[in-house]
Amino acid sequence: MSIYATPGTLPPDPAPLPGAGRSESRAARAERYRLLLRSPSVVIGAIVILFWVFCAMFPRLVAPYDPIFDNNFPTSQPPTWGHPFGTDTNGRDVFSRVLAGSRDVLLIAPAATLLGVVLGTMLGLITGYLRGVVDDVVSRFVDAVLSLPLIVTAILIVTAVGKSSTWVIAFIIGLIFAPVVSRTVRAAVLVEADLDYVQAARLRGERSIYIMNSEILPNVMAPVVVELTVRLGYAIFAVATLGFLGFGVQPPNPAWAAQINQYWTLIDPYWWMTLFPALAIASLVVAVNLVADGVREAYER
Prior knowledge:
disordered N terminus; 69% helix; single chain; MetI-like fold
């Protein structure tokens, strides 16, 4: 056989080298990491998040006083050198209570986010791949849930359940987030389901569950990761809002929202009891949003 191609024809494409796809995937991940590390906003946001995580894990190392039981100081004292955030009506150091108050929100919000993203990804995969009646029924349910305000829906469910413990709040917020995530994942799956590699898997006789988990899911992870970071910011805000409305942990727990709920009626003249916990919540939400924006930009390039 001649080693030369027949006139008018093109030589066949060379076969891809073994492991070439994995190498390209690793290179893409490494490039995303470099983009994230080079982004000042992502670095600043990550530092703030890590600071609050450290405070939540080791409150006794960072708080100068016990946030609950050290109540021997002058009551309702404005900020001073000894108490930079002042004291509350029970004589407790507000600075110590703010540092220790991140624990509950950093337990509930990530748990709710993870639950919502996992459930939403499963729904999005099923509806986007199977389509038909399944897609129609689930999509109508999703539309109904999305038409209701998140906080109002959460309050209704908490009231119906009759409990507002930490894990009940996390479960409810996760359930409410799932339809939002499912819509994003479904849109990505609809694009992937018509591509050649999915059709090839169908022709090989692969089961639907295998195609969704092993073929489509790895290729829609970019929007899933972006949703994970974005929903975390929303979850923190939702937990804080429910706590302010009286759902969730209660005083004397130093949770930020519990402090605001307890002292907002005393904001004039005791403004420091409400201001500093509110600023702590705002700092964490802004930090998470900075990281989420950086992750979205890295995956869009």
